[in-house]
Structure formats: C-alpha cells, structure tokens
Specification:
The complex is a heterodimer of chains A (394) and B (115). Chain A has 394 residues and is of the alpha+beta class. Chain A folds into 5 domains: 2-83, Alpha-Beta Plaits (2-Layer Sandwich); 112-178, Roll (Ubiquitin-like (UB roll)); 184-250, no CATH class; 257-261 and 330-383, no CATH class; 264-322, no CATH class. Chain A is 26% helix and 46% strand. Chain A has 9 helices and 22 strands. Chain A has helices spanning 2-11, 23-32, 60-67, 79-85, 90-106, 123-133, 146-156, 184-190, 332-351; strands at residues 13-19, 37-44, 47-53, 70-77, 112-116, 160-168, 171-178, 193-196, 201-210, 212-213, 220-221, 226-229, 231-232, 240-241, 245-261, 263-281, 284-287, 296-308, 311-329, 356-369, 373-386, 388-391. In chain A, the strands form 6 sheets. Chain A has a 5-stranded antiparallel β-sheet with strand order 11-9-15-21-20, covered by helices on one side. Chain A has a 4-stranded antiparallel β-sheet with strand order 2-3-1-4. A 4-stranded antiparallel β-sheet of chain A has the order 10-12-8-22, with helices on one face. The longest helix of chain A is centred in the last third of the chain and has 20 residues, at 332-351. Chain B is α+β, with helices and mostly antiparallel strands. Chain B folds into 2 domains: 5-38; 45-112, Immunoglobulin-like. Helices cover 30% and strands 46% of the residues of chain B. Chain B contains 3 helices and 6 strands. Chain B has a 6-stranded antiparallel β-sheet, with no helix packed on it. In chain B, a hairpin with a 3-residue loop joins strand 1 and strand 2. The radius of gyration of chain B is 19 Å and the shape is elongated. Classes of the chains: A alpha+beta (394), B alpha+beta (115). At the A-B interface, helix 2 and strand 2 of A face strand 3 and strand 5 of B.
Chain lengths: 394, 115
C-alpha cells in the first residue's frame, strides 16, 4: 500500500482543503464511495487537509455537495503537473529524448580495455592481439563473440595458458594467466654451463663449488669474462661438463661527481597561494592561467585521471605558491657536507639495491676548485657478489 | 388471529430478544474459534486495535469516524466507541476496514455501544 502511494505521488497528487461543518461525514462518505484519501490532518475545527490522487479528485464533487463543504486545492505534486508546466518547451523535451538515445547508443560501444594478470607479456602485445581478434576501442559490443576472441588470443599469444574475456558496461576486461617460465636456479639445476661476470671489478674471493675457476683472487674480471667454467678437468679422465656453481666477490668502484657553487639561490615563500584548474589529455596540459608572469611560482599539482578511448584524461587542481629568489653564499664546509650526504644518498638509493650481498669497503673524497665553486668527487669501493649463469652452447 | 406485516415483525423481534439469539451465536462463534485455534477477530466481527508506543494506532474493522479534531478522535467500531485523546492527531491512512492514526497519543478509551 505504501509502495502504491509512492507511485501515485510520482504520477500526480493534490493536497485538498475541506471547509465545512461536517468534515467527519466527508471522510466517511469518501470511504463509502471508495475514494482513496490519505495524510488527513485537522488544521482547525471544521478545516481538514488531505492528499488525493488526481484521477479521483472529480469524485469529491458530489460528496462536497452533499456535505455542503468547500473544496480548495492547496498544493499540486507529481510528474503530471511538471509535464503540464513545461508542455510548451518542445525543443527541451526533444533534446532530452535525443540525450537518452545517444547515451544508450554510446553505451553499446567499447570505451576502455583493461588488461589484468600479465607479468612478462606487455600490455601492448596483448592489446595488439586483441585488435587482431576484433576487439578494440570503438568496437560495437553486439558484434563480439567472447569465445572466438579468447580462442584467437590463445592462438596468437602462445605464452598464455588461459585467457578470459568479459564486458563490464563499456569496459572490456581481458584476464590472462601466463605460462610459468623456469627461473635461473631451475635452469642451473638442469643445464650445463658457465658462470660469467655481469660486472667488472677486482676479484676478492672466488669459491667454485662445481666447475673450474678461470680467474684467481686479485685479478681483474671484465664484464662478460668466464669466471667459473662448467668443466672439470682431470689428468686421468676426459673433461666432464657440469653445471658451474660458485661464489665470486669483487670490489667495484662507483663514482659520484658533482659541481657545487658558492653562490646559491633559495626560495623564500611569501605565503600567497593561488589555485587554478585544468585538464590534461595524454600529458598535454590545458589550464586556466591568470598568473602574473613577472612573479615566480612553485606549482603543486593534484589530479584525478581516467582512461577514455585509450587516452589518459585527467582533471587537475594546481596550487601556486608565490616565492622570491634570494641569493646567499655557502661555505666550503657546508658544500663538503652536502656533497657527502648526496653521495651517500646516491649509493643507498641507486647502487646498493642493484647489487647482491653488497657492502661499502671505503670511500675517497677529492675536490677540485673551479671559477665559481668546487667539483666534489666521491669514489666508493663496494664489495659485491657477481656472476650470471649462461648455458653452454655446444 | 391474523397479524399484519408490522405486528409480525415486532412479534419476531421480541421472541428473538427473549431467547438471546445474537448472544448465543456470538458464544458459539467464540467456542468454535477456540476449538480450532483461530483468532477471534477473524471469526466474529471484533475490532483489532494495534498500538505502536504512543505515536501510532492501527484500528482494523472500524465503521465510521464520529468526531475528528486535532486533539480528539472518536471512532465507531462494530461493538464499541474508541476515543483517542492526544495532540497533532492525523489520520495517516484510511481504507475500507483499516484506519491508521498518528500523533502524540495520551490516552485510548473505550465506550460501550449499548449505553
């Protein structure tokens, strides 16, 4: 009943006020004549208000006549009245209909493709294979056969062990499971081969577990040289080919060099902040620029992005903090300290993460004076493990 | 002795009154409902009143609204008068058999139909 009432209030209801001596009789007569009224409220004695469906409003007339009550409409609600109000705005209605049709039509195309589950096969490869299978941005969803697409994908990309294709609204989701490849340890277990140097440096330790060491401690290993050969030589027997295994440690030198100036500029913020908005399409930025060109600003950008037709579109909010450049002079000690910190940072962030079992042996700092500053050169010696297993060709 | 139509009707009604037919029928109905474990208001035309705290009252099986004011509503049911005192009393819904009253309800009184 409540649902029915709500549906009626969407289509059209009126709030009616009844004035007279026999309002109770009016309500009773409504009940007898099957006129459905609700939300009856007594305003003052002899005046009541209630809601009624527009289709039943005409039935009130004979009841009002019998009870000698005065009927007035106080409020009109519902779609019927809104349509009636805007009945002359035909173009508006037409545009609304066109908008609905266009949105329905556009929703039948693929607007976006999402690739899930790939690790070593690139997105581009998968998207190209999808395109060949007949799925691309702008393709109508109605002409896509999911089974045919997945079969074709598996034929085109042999490295995939499973392919799933589904459409979620205007987005096509391609889920893939790649074939597992043997990692280095597995290959090393099963194939004969050598260990070669993947970095150059002076060998500090070489322990061949299996195979023969070709270089000794203290010698220089060039990148690509064979460190441990996967062959065991014997005076009595013929050479036996094995899987080379072992540990090779080298000392490698890394340089950090940078020129520092005594005269420097620093930013002094004035506290004035300005905001603007913009839109960027594939890293091309378009923003509302009303800034004073003679002043300098620090730009802080925060954006929300989404993919549409294969292009990355993002709405950006820019925050400009106004600053002035102030000159100041750095002392020699300050420069050295700064250089040390930066060199340490460089070693920690870029060198050590890329090296195995690495540790800093020593560091040497040298300086060279130039016209306006000094060049600081920091040489780090890092002890690290090297060696890459390479399968024997013959 | 021949009786005319009016006299015959009167004679019948006096006999019916004397043997309490109505009461006996009601009694039989209540016994029947008790035996079959059916709610009484289904078998006989009793009124069912449901209260939700002091805000809503649902009356099932009413006959008509006798008085309707902002602070007082009197409703005639099959065997009783139901008198509701309160403030801001609205009739939320009204159908053939059901009536929902909402507002601040102070008291709910019954008055016998007979006197």
């Amino acid at each position: 009943m409540d649902f029915d009432k709500r549906i009626k209030s969407i289509t059209g209801t009126v709030v009616v006020q009844i004035e007279g001596f026999f309002t109770e009789r009016f309500i009773n007569l409504c009940k007898i004549n099957n006129v459905k009224i609700w939300d009856i409220r007594n305003i003052v004695n002899g005046v009541i208000r209630f809601r009624i469906d527009i289709s039943e409003f005409k039935k009130l007339k004979p009841i009002a006549k019998r009870t000698k009550c005065k009927v007035t409409i106080k409020n009109k609600e519902g779609l019927y009245f809104t349509f009636h109000k805007y009945r002359k705005r035909k173009i508006f209605a037409l545009l609304a209909i066109v908008l609905v049709i266009v949105s329905i039509a556009f929703s039948t195309f693929i607007w976006n493709i999402e690739v899930v589950g790939n690790n070593y096969i690139s997105n581009e490869q998968i998207l190209n294979a999808l395109k060949e299978s007949g799925v691309y941005i702008g393709k109508n969803k109605a002409f896509i056969n999911n089974k045919a697409v997945t079969n074709n994908m598996r034929v085109l990309l042999s490295d995939l062990s499973w392919v799933g294709f589904e459409l979620d609204g205007t987005k096509a989701i391609i889920k893939v499971v790649e074939k597992t490849k043997m990692d280095e340890d597995d290959i090393q277990e099963n194939v004969n081969g050598n260990i070669i140097a993947d970095k150059s440096g002076v060998i500090t330790k070489i322990i061949p577990e299996n195979g023969t060491a070709l270089l000794k401690e203290g010698s220089y290993a060039q990148e690509g040289n064979i460190l441990i050969e996967g062959v065991i030589y014997s005076k009595l027997l013929d050479p036996t080919y094995v899987t080379a295994k072992g540990i090779v440690m080298i000392d490698k030198k890394y340089n950090f060099s940078k020129e520092y100036f005594y005269e420097n500029t620093k930013k002094e913020y004035k506290g004035k902040v300005r905001y603007t908005v913009g839109i960027s399409v594939d890293s091309k930025e378009y923003m509302i620029n009303y800034l004073n060109k003679s002043l300098k600003y620090d730009i802080n950008k925060s954006s929300k992005s989404f993919k549409l037709f294969g292009k990355l579109i993002s709405f950006d909010l820019y925050k400009f903090s106004e600053y002035e450049e102030v000159n100041y002079i750095k002392s020699y000690d300050d420069i050295i300290n700064e250089a040390k910190n930066e060199a340490e940072e460089y070693i920690k962030s870029e060198v050590l993460p890329n090296a195995r079992e690495a540790g800093i042996v020593n560091s040497v700092l040298t300086t060279k004076d130039t016209e306006n500053g000094i060049i600081v050169d920091v040489q780090y010696t890092i002890n690290e493990q090297i060696g890459k297993f390479v399968e024997r060709n013959n | 002795m021949k009786l005319n139509k009016k006299e015959r009707k009167k004679f019948c009604s006096t006999i019916l009154k004397n043997i309490n037919v109505k009461e006996k029928i009601n009694d039989a109905k209540s016994k029947f409902s008790e035996f079959l474990e059916i709610p009484q208001e289904v078998v006989s035309n009793y009124t069912k009143i449901t209260c939700i705290e002091d805000t809503d009252i649902l009356i099932e099986g009413y006959k008509k609204i006798v008085d309707y004011y902002d602070n007082y509503i009197k409703i005639k049911t099959n065997n009783l008068f139901v008198i509701i005192d309160g403030s801001n009393l609205d009739i939320k819904e009204i159908t053939d058999s059901e009536l929902v009253i909402s507002g601040n309800i102070y008291s709910l009184n019954y008055k016998s139909d007979k006197g």
